[in-house]
Design a protein that fits this description.
This is Repeat domain-containing protein. Keywords: Signal. This protein has 1121 residues and is mainly beta. The protein has four domains: 434 residues, Methylamine Dehydrogenase, Chain H (7 Propeller), CATH 2.130.10; 86 residues, Immunoglobulin-like (Sandwich); 417 residues, 7 Propeller (Methylamine Dehydrogenase, Chain H); 72 residues, no CATH class. The chain is 13% helix and 34% strand. The longest helix has 20 residues. The radius of gyration is 32 Å and the shape is globular. The relative contact order is 0.08.
Length: 1121
């Protein structure tokens, strides 16, 4: 061999060795492990993805100790490949014992598998699921009962599914999960099935969902002394033909000691969350518990990933990480279809992974979740299957491993729109019948089309838990980034060294066996827990194990079915990080009773037996929460009701609807009784309402006369002020909305005069005539003449997003002749002030302590703007001088507050948050390019955002071409558009002429006054869950230091982004020095869901009330405890 070849070979070996040595995981070859399983997928005209839509969904793996020798063994299912069982011989050597054990299965399509001791003899049995092609008999599931170890040391199995009553012939089964749902001491079974054909999802959905399909519907089996009975209907389990079940997980999600069920569904049907009622029945609560769900859900997992002892949920979908793959798979925004799905009962669903953070349960035991997958950094992982929460580096925090890939891209839009459509047209031209499923399969060239389908191998993902609710992508650093087509996966400590190894299934490639090198590379400690339950549940399924150290506690639940079509080992592994000791291990057994192991040795395994449990534990004493919901008894009954206008129909590319700004509120004592009252604005065609507070802390509706006659207006802001200096509060109401066109009377603001008794009359001549779509109003005596003047903010020009016009400074010139405000904007602030930006809120404050009130304005696509009051004669823009020129944001609220107690005014500013696809900083801003790019000269707003450090248009090819049809030839195919930037879409002349608006920051923040400059300081991560539309600053916790109360959310985003809905309210406890710490929801008592628009604190004499208004929803009232 030439020396050069030898040298190259040597260097390659060195590189491979270095990589394996420095990565956390090391892929072991077949020659070392003896595992040589490949899930081989072959295709022909009769069997392919067109004839069975789940042809590429892959296989599963189950891990468990089948011969009780202390080593975890491995079982693979194969779709068209016989199953294999490998006996762990130690040292990562495995022996194929399939033939001897008798578990290869029949010649049919295998899917999920798990190991379970179904007969309580202490030996793990194997349950195998079947689906796909063939007869009802072919699709009968199999149960291999462990007969024990023979003379050769190899266990043998006997197939007995029919005898136990769980063979379910004919069903299309993805997976099964065993658990003791009725707490009678034996294991019951949930059977997860999927449909093999499509029903119309929008025709009589409720009726169809409540029907039971004998082959497609999910089933719940109760174990009756070793014989299983199908009790699905009586237990409340849906079993319709709409069902496309792909994932199943069991957990006690509301911490009531009962096992609940979470089912993930593909296609239109929503995921199901079945809450165990404890009486043999379940209640489906997914839409009540989860603000939204993933759209095409594959695998899932449930585990406490933030160590607050509450199980969290992650579900997998198909949103790619790269812009290219997003654009070749993404069609137009489907607002109408999305709305139809919601109206048809499928709930809110989005095409991405979702991470549901468990916030505890409400007073009725209903679990509450906040979806924060985008904030956590795990929402975009492409066509994903298994999701596994596991502490892979033993640092005490559960990481997230995700498998990825699809053998052929059947959803590639170029393929579907051109190649499939062309083949279909050719068949029709030839006179071939393609009108039915059978004729379509017979007369379409399906196998030829399959061969033309794109095929892309994609890396799996390994996310390291950062310990702050977020994850970092460590796929490459951990050695888990090899491209492939992976699906089922499971973890176990295969070599008993105290860390979790991985086994990953692949289509048309050998299964990967990864050794975890944490024990060699890190100094992290661990403790392993093995449970022995009572007869009937010998492995303790349903038990909760809590490991407590000085730094906190971790929870794991004994439910082995996790991820996708797979199950993990029963031995629980807890990473301890650098902790040197464990204070206690507590086991809560599923039928009651507790076992406690105090000060156990670390870095070893411990066996805990249920028979040694104590029968009770002392419940923890609940501490009173800071807030209580008193809405039902408050008397404040108002529901904001939006009209049916849809902004996207007129402005196709805008990122959100501008017509959904209400309901906004204002407060004041309008009748002089010392109690603050509240005005709540109505939507277009809905009058606002005044509610008067009574001495007993209730609210009664005031006179409706002045508001009813003005119902045509959309109230978007209001303010109580003594405009005429007669000692009572008058009311200014801002009109707005985006449904109007041109200078219409419906945009005129209104001023209502108070007679001193809380009765109001509109004064039409008090305000200048205008027709601007407004947003807010704030008052100050800017010229020090003894009366209150106004700033009125403008939100937009209807039909011309993102442009705005109409900001006004109104000088109070009232006197003996009556109320009168004069527009002095141009003379005071200059002609450009009127269109300074898409204003959302403003406040007057003396930022430089010169005795004159300055104006601070915030809004969308604009920086925090500061206008210095030059002694009442001029408002000068000093934004840049005070260091705020690059603070462009999605600002929505501003509140003055001296948060650092240094004597000057700071500000708390609400923003969109970081729980979205829109991340921004000074180096990678969001940019909107706007100009008359459409053929009819209408404004086209093109928003760009950064994906993997490159800027791309947010909208899809179809959306952009719809508004700019001349681009159709340039971007004929989706692949042509997939790498396009704004420079490819707009000409140099269009770019030069375009208005450019920037967002550099989406974090709700503190604006700290440093004397002559401001600095931005982000609020804690919990404040970034969603848009912060409500802000209060006060000592809510009673420690003498002011806190921050936030409420928010924003629903009107495009379907592609989905609702911003993760906030349930946040209480941030202040330390008196400008730093704030989130208070747990269980302690704060906050549960403020919905599309919040405003929040006020009302003085009620002895008590104060927090009033929260919401878009298209009812007002909520809280009391401080």
């Amino acid at each position: 061999m030439p020396k050069r070849v030898v040298l190259i070979s040597f260097l390659l070996c060195v590189l491979v060795a270095c990589r394996q040595q420095h990565t956390l995981f090391e892929k072991l070859p077949e020659s070392e492990t003896g595992i040589n399983f490949t899930n081989t997928i072959t295709e022909d005209q009769a069997q392919n993805v067109f004839t069975y839509q789940y042809y590429y969904n892959g296989n599963g793996v189950a891990i468990g100790d089948i011969n009780n020798d202390g080593l975890a063994d491995v079982f693979f299912t194969g779709n068209k490949t016989p199953s294999k069982l490998y006996l762990n011989k130690g040292g990562f050597r495995f022996e194929d014992i399939t033939a001897t054990a008798g578990v290869a299965g029949k010649d049919a399509w295998r899917t999920g598998a798990n190991m379970v001791d179904i007969n309580g003899d202490g030996l793990l049995d194997i349950y195998v699921c079947y689906s796909g092609f063939g007869s009802d008999t072919d699709r009968a599931n199999q149960l291999f009962i462990n007969q024990g170890t023979g003379k050769n040391g190899v266990p043998s199995f006997s197939e007995q599914a029919a005898a136990y009553g769980i063979d379910a012939p004919g069903t299309y089964t993805s997976q099964a999960a065993f658990f003791d749902f009725d707490q009678d001491g034996d294991l019951d079974m949930f059977l997860l099935n999927h449909a093999a054909e499509f029903y119309s999802p929008f025709f009589n959905t409720t009726h169809l969902r409540n029907l039971r399909h004998p082959k497609y519907g999910n089933r719940l089996y109760r174990n009756d002394a070793g014989k299983f009975s199908d009790i699905s209907a009586s237990a409340g389990i849906y079993g319709s033909g709409l069902n496309f079940g792909l994932g199943i997980a069991i957990s006690d999600i509301n911490n009531d000691g009962l096992s609940d069920i979470l089912v993930s569904n593909d296609f239109h049907e929503q995921d199901f969350c079945y809450l165990n009622k404890g009486d043999g029945t379940f209640k489906e609560i997914a839409q009540q518990a989860f603000p939204h769900m993933s759209r095409n859900t594959m695998g899932l997992d449930i585990a406490d990933y933030n160590n607050d002892l509450l199980p969290d949920v992650v579900t997998m979908d198909m949103l790619p990480e790269t812009n290219y793959r997003q654009k070749i798979l993404q069609g137009p925004d489907e607002y109408d279809k999305y709305t139809l799905m919601v109206d048809s009962g499928y709930g809110h669903q989005n095409n991405r992974n979702v991470l549901q953070l468990n916030r505890g349960s409400d007073a009725n035991g209903m679990p509450v979740f906040s979806e924060i997958g985008q904030l956590a950094g795990v929402s975009n992982t492409d066509w994903s299957w298994a999701a596994l929460f596991a502490d892979l580096d033993n640092d005490g925090w559960k990481d997230l491993f995700i498998t990825n890939g699809y053998l052929r891209e059947s959803t590639n839009l170029d393929f579907m729109k051109y190649q499939v459509a062309e083949a279909y047209q050719q068949a029709v031209t030839k006179g071939l019948d393609v009108s039915t499923r059978e004729s379509y399969e017979r007369n379409m060239p399906l196998y030829d089309l399959v061969q033309k389908m794109p095929s892309t191998k994609i890396s799996n993902y390994a996310f390291r838990n950062s310990g702050d609710l977020r994850f970092t992508d460590e796929s490459k650093a951990w050695g888990l980034d090899e491209p492939g087509v992976s699906n089922g996966a499971a973890y176990a400590d295969l070599d008993n060294d105290g860390d979790l190894d991985l086994i990953v299934c692949n289509n048309n490639d050998p299964a990967w066996v990864y050794r975890n090198n944490t024990d060699r590379q890190k100094e992290n400690n661990f403790i392993r827990i093995k449970l022995t339950g009572s007869k009937g549940n010998t492995f303790g399924l349903g038990a909760k194990v809590v490991v407590t150290t000085v730094s906190g506690s971790q929870l794991q639940e004994q439910y082995p079915v996790r991820g996708y079509q797979s199950s993990v080992d029963y031995v629980l592994n807890f990473g301890l990080g650098k902790e040197k000791e464990v204070k206690e291990v507590k086991v809560l057994w599923p039928r009651g009773g507790v076992s406690v192991l105090r000060n156990p040795a670390i870095n070893k395994a411990h066996l805990i037996k249920e028979q040694q449990r104590s029968e009770s534990q002392t419940p923890e004493k609940a501490t009173p929460a800071f807030f209580t919901d008193v809405t039902p008894t408050s008397g404040l009954r108002f529901r904001h009701q939006e009209n049916e206008f849809v902004d996207f129909k007129r402005e196709y590319l805008i990122p959100y609807q501008l017509s959904r700004q209400g309901a906004r509120m204002s407060k004041g004592d309008v009748n002089g009784d010392g109690l603050e009252d509240v005005y709540i604005g109505g939507a277009a065609e809905q009058s606002g309402a005044l509610f008067l507070q009574t001495a007993d802390g209730r609210f009664v509706k005031g006179s409706e006369k002045p508001w009813q006659s003005d119902a045509i207006y959309e109230d978007v802001g209001s303010l109580f002020l003594d405009a005429d200096r007669d000692g009572d509060l008058d009311l200014y109401v801002v009109s707005g909305g985006s449904e109007w066109s041109g200078a219409v009377p419906g945009l005129q603001d209104r001023l209502y005069e108070n007679d001193g008794k809380g009765n109001f009359r509109r004064q039409p001549l008090a305000l200048p005539r205008e027709a601007f779509s407004g947003s807010c109003v704030t008052a100050a005596d800017f010229d020090k003449d003894g009366d209150l003047d106004l700033f009125v903010g403008a939100r937009s020009i209807p039909g011309r997003y993102p442009f705005s016009e109409g900001n006004m400074i109104l000088r109070n010139d009232g006197g003996a002749q009556g109320l009168k405000f004069t527009d002095v904007t141009d003379g005071l602030a200059g002609v450009h002030f009127t269109n300074t930006g898409m204003v959302t809120d403003a406040t007057w404050s003396d930022i430089d302590k010169d005795g004159w009130m300055d104006l601070i304005v915030v809004g969308d696509w604009m920086p925090v703007k500061i206008y210095r009051n030059e002694q009442g004669k001029k408002l000068s823009d000093i934004t840049a001088k005070w260091g705020l020129e690059k603070t462009g944001g999605w600002w929505c609220k501003i509140l003055p507050a001296d948060v650092d107690k240094d004597g000057d005014v700071d500000f708390i500013v609400g923003n969109a948050g970081t729980n979205s696809q829109f991340r921004a900083n000074e180096q990678e801003p969001l940019i909107t390019y706007a100009g008359p790019f459409a053929p009819d000269g209408s404004i086209v707003p093109l928003m760009t955002y950064y994906v993997q450090h490159a800027s791309y248009p947010f909208n899809s090819r179809d959306e952009v071409v719809e508004k700019m049809p001349a681009l159709n030839k340039r971007f004929l195919r989706y692949a042509d558009f997939a790498n396009a930037t704004i420079n490819d879409i707009l000409s140099p002349e269009q770019l030069a002429a375009a208005a450019k608006l920037y967002i550099y920051n989406t974090q709700s923040s503190l604006l700290i006054n440093e004397g002559s400059r401001f600095s931005l300081k982000p609020l804690p991560l919990e404040a970034q869950f969603s848009m912060a539309n409500g802000i209060l600053y006060k000592d809510f916790t009673g420690d003498g230091k002011e806190d921050i109360l936030l409420t928010g959310n924003f629903y009107p985003f495009r379907v592609q982004q989905g609702r911003s809905d993760a906030s349930i309210g946040s209480l941030l406890m202040g330390n008196g020095k400008g730093s704030f710490t989130p208070v747990a929801a269980s302690k704060s008592g906050l549960l403020v869901k919905g599309d919040v628009r405003d929040m006020l604190e009302l003085n009620g004499g002895k008590k104060t009330w927090i009033v929260v208004s919401k878009n298209n929803d009812s007002v909520q009232v809280l009391s401080r405890n």
